[in-house]
Structures are given as structure tokens and as C-alpha cells.
Amino acid sequence: MYPKTKGLCFNHFSSHPLSPARVLFSAFFVARPLHLALLCNSRTKASISPAASSTFVSRTRARCLPHSLLLPQREVTVKNIHCTGAKLAETDANVVEESLPSIPTTSSSSSEEDGEVPSSHLSIGHFKKRLRIADIKGGPKEGLELVGEQMMVRGWVRTCRSQKAFTFLEVNDGSCLSNLQCIIGPEAEGFGMIEAGSISTGASVAINGHLVESQGSKQKVELKASKLQLIGGSDATTYPVQKKKLSREYLRTIAHMRPRTNTFGAVSRVRNALAYATHKFFQDRGFIWVASPIITASDCEGAGEQFCVTTLVPNSTKDSSTPIQKIPSTKEGLLDWSQDFFGRPAFLTVSGQLNAEIYATALSDVYTFGPTFRAENSNTTRHLAEFWMIEPELAFADLKDDMACASTYLQYVVRYILEECKEDMQFFDQWIEKGIIARLNDVAEKDFRQITYTDAVDILLKAKTNFEFPVKWGCDLQSEHERYLTEKVFKGTPLIVTDYPKEIKAFYMRQNDDGKTVAAMDLLVPRVGELIGGSQREERLDVLEKRIEELGLEKASYWWYLDLRRYGTVPHAGFGLGFERLVQFATGIDNIRDAIPFPRTPGSAEF
């Protein structure tokens, strides 16, 4: 299906080269305001210059551009109104902003005659991009190209150091790891708040001033303040995130505060970049995103570890109990599901795969990316009750296509964060996992290896290692087995294991000709083990029906899934990737509870 590539043991999934960081999204941002102008003023017959859509220059989504691009000039003509992009100026609190097209107004008499609301009442202004510290310090010269510019910075105080002549505030706004040092002298408006002790760690502030070259060695630039404003105070005696090192276990108890730490700020930015790169990878290759349902009546994995969604137990936000006699039940004493909201048992989804298959058999290549839930009573560093899954489905594809897509995707997102999150990745390399950048570079550049499950078991049986879980053919490989293969045997190279015993895999996986194994694959990586699990789906109706019966599943619940095989069935394949495990892999964070903003685990649903 896809062209062969040297060094790969399966078909290479065709991919575009990694797009540069400075991607232009002119079509999206230009179309919206122009369309709005036409909607609100259809009677004015406003003429829009064709040049309007070609002169817009967008800043990058997460990186700082050179000064010439940071302040783009563009012209948009709507009827006789002329708008030009603004430069850094002292107007509007000295915030860097872009001028968007104005909306032509109609006369008041016309509005009254037509019974319309005057256009002046419709205007709500344009959204203005806030100047971020990443915009100032994220360029190749780390802000030196902006020296002398007037600006306003808003953020939270990390440290406050007072000397005889000046006070130094380290301010961070979350856009990057770096703080911006602000110099506050007695001449600055608002300096009295520092003398009064109102400015302390954790307080939110807005600081006006001009950028100067720093005399210190820790940063290239700093802000010489002319005005200091306190937005929200912070009691230094009780502020929970002080400069001292806090354990991650403790930070989980204050999850509402942990994003303010360096570690969790960096994890959040890398997680965001991975999500963006995921959508970009699939969208660039023609995949269509499908919103799979959160509430479902199906169990994709057939494991039965699902959260039930019901209204049979009365809703309550108070600490009260419901007598068991008041819950609707049948004569046999069983729950009467006919009285429930959906009229039948319903659950939180464990996977969006089955729903994605519906759309893959109509739209060809699709993917889902959303939350999933497992009621698995497991307190490990690898399990969550709520987590996010990426699940693509490829029509007219087999297992080789599936492996090619999975490996190409993984290499793409790894390259993306190495390029776009350099500062955060250097932080992880220094403080979380030494050598993580080199490890990820290996993943991005090395050819992945492939072996069968049977070969993997043979290797493990010959290993001179005492595994906690004994190895035999037919067992499910544990994390210790997977890590041994990737870290010891294949020396850090990602590994794809294929053709697992059908007895340990899900009902929907295509059976191989031997009758004992299925066309399944797991992509294993160092430190994590299984990162991606996928398979070719069983497209043969008779084989699928027999497999459902063998596993004792309720055939009636899958009537619609079987219909996909009755009407225009095609070979198709897909995989699932636990997004939090990808975040773990990319950041070196050893506990999955620290790879998601608000972890949901047995006995814990705070925040």
C-alpha cells in the first residue's frame, strides 16, 4: 500500500517531512473576520479586496519570531476602510497586538427602518494576543532584538529580591520555563507596594517598562519597570508552592497548585505539543477526526472493567445514603434497567475503536482522540481510571500498514517536541531523566525492529534473568518482559512484537491462518514497555461471529458491528495509544499520575 523504505521490516507509512515551526494559518484567521463583516452588514454590499486573504502573516503558535515577523505589516481593505497592523507602541498598555479588519457600520436611519439593532451595539472588539514571555525570550537572540521596546508583562511572581537601590522580581507567565527578571526602582509607579510587603511569591502582577540588556550572566534581557500593578495578592506565609523542593506525592494533593512548578509547567507544555502534533500528523495525511461517544453500551475490550452510568441511584451532592429498597428492582431482586435513563445498562467508554471502525468503513481513514475510562482497581505507576486515547483506523489496510502508520506517527511526534520544546526538554534532561534527549533522538532516527511473539518468548526463556512473572508461550507479556526486550536485547531501539496468541487478545482481531494467533502488534519502547497496541480487524463475518460466541459475549450487543461486515466489508486495521504513557515516555516522568492534569485513581477523585 505504501512504498518500501530501507531498513524497515514493514511497509513505510507515507509521510510528509516535518513542517517548520513557523506554519502560516492565514486562511483560517483571515476568513473568520471577513465572513463576519459580510454577515453583519449584508445590506451594505461591502467589497472585499482579494488581497485581503494573501497579506496576512501569522505568528507561530508557540515560538518567537524575529522582530520583523513579530510585528507583521498587512493591509486589509473592506469597502473604504483601511487597516494596518500595529507596531509595538505605547498605546493600549503597550501590548503587542495585531489589527484585524474593521466591520463597516450602517447608518442609524437604515437600522431603524429595517428594525435592526444599530451596528454600534453589535461591536465587541477584537481579540488581542497577549505578549508572552516566550515571545520575548524565545527567539534566537533570547530577546536582544527587542531591547528598547516598551511593553507590558503579566504573570506570577516566582521570587522577590530587594537590594538598596532596586528590587528584582522574577515573573513567569507559564508560556515557557524561563522567568523574566524585572527591575523595580523607587521611581517606578507602584514601588510602594514592595516597601509595604504586598508583593510576594505567588502574587499576580502586571509590569510596564522597556526591555534592556541584562548586566547579569543568567539572562540576556530584563525589564526596566516604569509601573507595577498588583492584580492578585498572595500570603507568603501560607502559599503552598515555595522555592523549596516539594515531592511529587505531595504535589498530587495540591493538584490545583502544581502547574506553577517548573516540572509540571514543562509537562503541560510538552503534553500540549504532543496533542497538537498528533492532530497535525493525521490531518496532514487526510485522516478525519471522529468524536466517539463517552457513554456506550458496548465493551470494546470484553474485560468487563467498566464504570456504570445510571440514574437508578438518586443524584446527591450531599453526604447522604439511599436506602436500597428505593432503587428500582425486578421481582427477582435485580436492578430494573428498564427504569434507568437509557432503558438498559450503559457505561463510560473504554475505547472509541469500535465507533471509529464505523466511520472508517465510510470515510476510509479516521482517528479518535479523547478520554476513556477503566474501572481497574490498580494502584501502579502505569494505570489510571481516566486517560486519553489516540485511536486511528485505516480502511483497505493490513497489519503491515498499521505498523508503518504507528512507527511513523511516533517518530513524527518525537521529532516535533525535540524541535519545538527545546527548553523544556533540556530541563527534563537535566532534572528528570539524564540522557532523555539522546534516547528520544534514537527513537526518531533508528529503524524499528520487528519480531513475533513466539520469538520474543524464546528470547525471554533463554534470558539469565529472574523475572517476577514467569514466561511461557500463551502468557501476556508484562512490563518487565517488554522493557527487557527493548532495553537489554535491542539496546534502546523500539520493538514491534506481532502475532500474539488469540486467547490473550480481543475478539475483533483478525485470526491468522494457523488458527492459534491473531494479526496483532504491540510497539514497545524503553522505560515504558508497551506504548502502542494495534491489529488488523476481523473483516470476515462468519469468523467474527464465531469468535464472539467463543468468548461468551452477548451477540445482540454487537449487531451494528456485525452489520459493518454484512454490507461492504473491507480489510482494515488500527491501533490505540495511551496518551499519558506517551507523555511519560517523552518527559521521563516515572509515574503516570504526573502525566495528566488531574489523575483519577482508586479512592481519588479530587479536583
Automatic annotation (TrEMBL):
<dbReference type="Pfam" id="PF00152">
    <property type="entry name" value="tRNA-synt_2"/>
</dbReference>
<feature type="compositionally biased region" description="Low complexity">
    <location>
        <begin position="98"/>
        <end position="110"/>
    </location>
</feature>
<protein>
    <recommendedName>
        <fullName>asparagine--tRNA ligase</fullName>
        <ecNumber>6.1.1.22</ecNumber>
    </recommendedName>
</protein>
<feature type="region of interest" description="Disordered">
    <location>
        <begin position="98"/>
        <end position="122"/>
    </location>
</feature>
<comment type="similarity">
    <text>Belongs to the class-II aminoacyl-tRNA synthetase family.</text>
</comment>
<dbReference type="GO" id="GO:0005739">
    <property type="term" value="C:mitochondrion"/>
</dbReference>
<dbReference type="InterPro" id="IPR004522">
    <property type="entry name" value="Asn-tRNA-ligase"/>
</dbReference>
<dbReference type="GO" id="GO:0004816">
    <property type="term" value="F:asparagine-tRNA ligase activity"/>
</dbReference>
<dbReference type="InterPro" id="IPR002312">
    <property type="entry name" value="Asp/Asn-tRNA-synth_IIb"/>
</dbReference>
<dbReference type="GO" id="GO:0005524">
    <property type="term" value="F:ATP binding"/>
</dbReference>
<feature type="domain" description="Aminoacyl-transfer RNA synthetases class-II family profile">
    <location>
        <begin position="269"/>
        <end position="597"/>
    </location>
</feature>
<dbReference type="InterPro" id="IPR045864">
    <property type="entry name" value="aa-tRNA-synth_II/BPL/LPL"/>
</dbReference>
<keyword id="KW-0067">ATP-binding</keyword>
<dbReference type="InterPro" id="IPR004364">
    <property type="entry name" value="Aa-tRNA-synt_II"/>
</dbReference>
<dbReference type="InterPro" id="IPR006195">
    <property type="entry name" value="aa-tRNA-synth_II"/>
</dbReference>
<keyword id="KW-0030">Aminoacyl-tRNA synthetase</keyword>
<dbReference type="GO" id="GO:0006421">
    <property type="term" value="P:asparaginyl-tRNA aminoacylation"/>
</dbReference>
<dbReference type="Pfam" id="PF01336">
    <property type="entry name" value="tRNA_anti-codon"/>
</dbReference>
<keyword id="KW-0436">Ligase</keyword>
<dbReference type="InterPro" id="IPR004365">
    <property type="entry name" value="NA-bd_OB_tRNA"/>
</dbReference>
<keyword id="KW-0547">Nucleotide-binding</keyword>
<keyword id="KW-0648">Protein biosynthesis</keyword>
<dbReference type="GO" id="GO:0003676">
    <property type="term" value="F:nucleic acid binding"/>
</dbReference>
<dbReference type="InterPro" id="IPR012340">
    <property type="entry name" value="NA-bd_OB-fold"/>
</dbReference>
